[in-house]
Amino acid sequence: MEKPRYVDLKAIAGMAMEKYGFEPRFPKPVMQEVDALTNKAPLYEGGKIKDLRSLLWSSIDNIDSMDLDQLEYCERGPGGEIQVMVAVADVDSYVPKECQTDRHAVHNGTSVYTGIVTFPMLPDKLSKNISSLLPEQDRLAVVAGYTVLPDGSVSPGEVHRALVRNKAKLVYEDLGEWLEGTGSIPPLVRDTPGLKDQIQLQAEAARNLREKRMEQGALDLETIEPQPVIEGETVRDLVVLKPNMARRVIEEFMVAANRTMVSCLGKAGIPMIQRVVRVPKYWDEIVLTAASYGEKLPSLPDVKALASFLKNQKAADPVRFPDLSLTIIKLLGPGEYMPLEPGTPPTGHFSMAVSDYTHGTAPNRRYVDVINQRLLKSMLDKMPSPYTLDELEDRAVWLSDREKGSKKVERFMRKAAAAVLLQDRIGTVFEALVTGASEKGTYVRLINPPAEGRVIRGERGMWVGQNVNVRLLKTDPYNGFIDFERAGGKTGK
Predict the structure, then answer these.
(1) Which residues pair with 229 in a beta bridge?
(2) What is the SS3 assignment for 138?
(3) Domains in the chain, number
(4) First vs last Cα of the chain: how many Å apart?
(5) Are 429 and 491 in contact (CB under 8 A)?
(6) CA 223 to each of CA 9, 242, 317, 455, 487: distance values in angstroms, whole numbers, following the listed order
(7) For residues 159 and 90, what is the distance between their CA atoms, to the nearest angstrom?
């Protein structure tokens, strides 16, 4: 068999970034500006900045993540409620508005995670060091506090500036397995005094928060976005990240923290950028989709009814549920950023079943979070807003576009990595699931590895959800193409 040709996926990733309007490299003025920064938190100011370094803060993230944006800490209250604090890295202290680094960050708008190479919004010296909430380092933060009541509802608290210190960098997979009873306690949790009880309390709060959101109609959607497993410069496999309890702790805590920020800015009469998913324009098509599964949805948008339909389908057919989820996500429409003027009712986030939501907890990775952080700090410092409503309008439109662009880059690179993984398996027959069948083409997702491609021969008569065998005909990593033909018989070569 002919040896597979070398494919430079890093170069392809750089070209994809440029294709969708990103700058994959930091300009020299940005690097000079960041190089001049010192790795030392500004002096602690009594009263203005609270000293919270003694609390048992911890972070949960991927094993290789160094751009740590959040820390969490909980205390149980006297009435069964749980007091939660989320500390968010104070990026603004190092990246003032309109500096060279800020201008580059707003242009890209977000870090882009391709699975092959990461294109950070901020240089590593910032996002992975000075402004990262790394273990055993004193760091400035903006802290959002709120109370989780026994029924899972949230009572927003206050936002304040603080000096914090991460006592434990925890990992999603290890922590999730322990919390779900399928793995042993992580050594760091076991050996850090008080941390076991702290994490169990965080998990309890997250379960209550999630149950309440599900009760209110939050949509439990699940899509398959396989990530490449890279060894050296070789793609070894594609893996799908599974939701687990550790990930849900972060998800629920960040939703509540972001809602708290919206509440505080609203009370202060300060304009902000909200994160919205509008009431679906294509509800009629969602109704038709549900009808094809034998379920009836109301004629007017009803998030609780949609959530119930999705819950039923996930239980009935978990294998095909990701494809149904993707269909619903497309019909719901994309999330977007919108300015919110003081006194104006928020648009709301249909999928989350919340009316007050923004993005403010990941300023090392998303620019809109930097904007909202600056607005919060202006509120705390009793200073005028650093942004006019017109500026927020312009930023919201631009950053919505940048988010869409980043998803296009990431989706393209998943296809390119899959094409490299499969390039030496031409002629192999795979078991697959039909994920799309229209005039635009017929598409399948392999069961293993979970790669997607187009059926260019024998596709007539296929329908979405059908199990089929397909033979691999061609791969093209540079264009992200994988082509199949329908095949009969057993899988395997």
Answers:
(1) 237
(2) strand
(3) 3
(4) 13
(5) yes
(6) 24, 10, 14, 21, 26
(7) 13
Query: Cβ(410)–Cβ(477) under 8 Å?
Result: no
Same domain, 298 and 175: no
- Per DSSP, the three-state class of 91 is helix
Q: Are residues 98 and 207 in the same domain?
A: yes
Question: Which amino acid, residue 236?
Answer: R
Q: Is 178 exposed, middle or buried (0-12, 13-18, 19+ CB in 10 A)?
A: buried
How far is 88 from 69, CA to CA, in rounded Å?
A: 6
Residue 274 and residue 262 in contact, taking contact as beta carbons nearer than 8 Å: yes
CA gap 360, 100 in Å, rounded: 22
Assess if residue 3 is contained within a domain: no
> Is 289 within a domain?
yes
> CA-CA distances (angstroms) from residue 354 to 236, 276, 303, 320?
40, 9, 11, 27
Domain that holds residue 303: 283-332
HEC per residue, 239-305? ECCCCCHHHHHHHHHHHHHHHHHHHHHHHHCCCEEEEEECCCCCHHHHHHHHHHCCCCCCCCCCHHH
Split the chain (493 residues) into runs of 10 and give each run's mean pLDDT. 74 96 97 87 65 97 94 95 98 95 98 94 96 95 97 96 96 96 96 98 98 92 86 86 93 97 94 92 91 93 93 91 88 91 87 89 98 96 93 97 96 95 94 88 92 93 90 95 84 45
Specify whether 304 is located in the same domain as 439: no
Whether residues 462 and 314 share a domain: the answer is no
- Angle (CA) 415 417 420, round 5°: 110
Distances (CA, A) of 378 to 42, 257, 268, 309, 424: 18, 18, 10, 44, 57
Distances (CA, A) of 403 to 62, 223, 229, 399: 21, 18, 24, 6
Amino acid in the structure at residue 313: Q
CB atoms within 10 A of CB 422: 23
Which residues, including other chains, have CB under 8 Å from residue 264's CB and lie 6 or more apart?
144, 156, 158, 159, 376, 379
The pLDDT of residue 491? 46
Residue 429 sits in the same domain as residue 382: no
Q: Nearest to residue 310, comparing CAs of 321, 326, 300, 296? A: 321
